[in-house]
């Protein structure tokens, strides 16, 4: 298992916002996390990435506790929100900086970015603007592209389709499918259509707990829609 979660809990005050007894994710899986507002998805991702500490329990990445070891940072890339960006840089400067952390030269980075011409839709590169001056959707594009650029073994994206126009949502699905290879992908989404299209496994969370965990098949979208229409 590339990722394992054991007895993971996060408590705020008297509220348990995440409570996951046991979850195992095999290398190469594409997992979608769905659940209503406040279900605990972002809190869970933050614990996977050691951005907040659990009240109890642990997250193991390739068997190592993410709180005690930094090795996982070499093969894990993520974009949860704009806080991951450096807003006083231009996108080019940001990509170069992220690339330099992963031994990519300026030429490697600019070569890599040519694949994103369609996804960026002419609005990101050579715009002469700082990241802070982009729309939220375009900021998301920068964050997602920077995460993919790291060619990670594990990719974690929080609501990647949110704030993107429909054309870009479809382009993102294509990108995620193309990048798949051996990558383990963990994405949260409120878009049931996209998440069932991209993911081979869906985890449904409610009040911090896993309610359902199933392999995606032709009935999954209908099942999810009926669950959420209740
Ligand atoms: N720092 C905090 N202090 C207190 N409560 C918090 C804190 N962070 C999150 N919570 C609470 O934890 C619960 C889970 O929030 P979280 O953001 O993880 O949900 P989510 O599933 O990502 O929701 P959404 O779909 O709206 O993004 C919510 O009730 C939220 O108010």
Automatic annotation (TrEMBL):
Q: Which UniProt keywords apply?
A: ATP-binding, Nucleotide-binding, Transport
Tell me yes or no: is ATP-binding among this UniProt entry's keywords: yes
Per the database entry, which stretches of residues form a coiled coil? none
Annotated Pfam families: ABC_tran
Q: Does the keyword Iron apply?
A: no
Location of the ABC transporter domain? 3-229
Molecular function via GO: ATP binding
- Please, which domain of life does this record's source organism belong to? Bacteria
Q: Which SUPFAM superfamilies has this protein been placed in? A: P-loop containing nucleoside triphosphate hydrolases
The protein, known as:
ABC transporter ATP-binding protein
């Amino acid at each position: 298992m590339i990722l394992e979660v054991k007895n993971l809990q996060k408590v705020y005050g008297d509220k348990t916002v995440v409570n996951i007894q046991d979850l195992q994710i095999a290398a190469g899986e594409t997992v979608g996390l769905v659940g209503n507002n406040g279900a605990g998805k972002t809190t869970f991702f933050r614990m996977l990435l050691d951005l907040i500490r659990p009240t109890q329990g642990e997250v193991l990445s390739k068997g190592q506790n993410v709180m005690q070891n930094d090795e996982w940072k070499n093969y894990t890339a993520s974009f949860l929100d704009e806080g991951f960006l450096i807003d006083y840089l231009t996108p080019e400067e940001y990509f170069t900086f992220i690339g330099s952390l992963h031994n990519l030269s300026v030429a490697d980075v600019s070569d890599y970015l040519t694949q994103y011409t369609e996804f960026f839709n002419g609005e990101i590169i050579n715009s002469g603007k700082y990241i802070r001056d982009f729309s939220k959707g375009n900021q998301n594009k920068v964050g997602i592209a920077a995460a993919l650029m790291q060619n990670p073994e594990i990719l974690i994206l929080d609501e990647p389709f949110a704030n993107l126009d429909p054309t870009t949502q479809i382009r993102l699905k294509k990108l995620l499918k193309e990048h798949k290879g051996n990558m383990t992908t963990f994405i949260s989404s409120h878009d049931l259509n996209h998440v069932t299209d991209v993911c081979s496994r869906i985890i449904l969370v409610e009040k911090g707990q896993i309610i359902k965990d199933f392999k995606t098949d032709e009935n999954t979208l209908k099942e999810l829609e009926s669950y959420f229409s209740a």
